[in-house]
Design goal:
Elements lengths: L8 E6 L6 E5 L10 E6 L4 E8 L1
Antiparallel strand pairs: 1-2, 1-4, 3-4
Protein name: Large ribosomal subunit protein bL33
Family: Belongs to the bacterial ribosomal protein bL33 family.
Pfam family, one: Ribosomal_L33
Length: 54
Amino acid sequence: MARNELRPVVRLRSTAGTGYTYVTRKNRRHDPDRMILRKYDPVAGRHVDFREER
């Protein structure tokens, strides 16, 4: 089955300014806005907000 653009791959960049990123998928139908997740940043050594970049 071919991948469609309903669940695109998005990149989450740390708001701590370290440049660390996570890669995940999201459902555009349920989350049309930019995603913000609180995840661990190993460079900063703590949990910070990660925002979706385009």
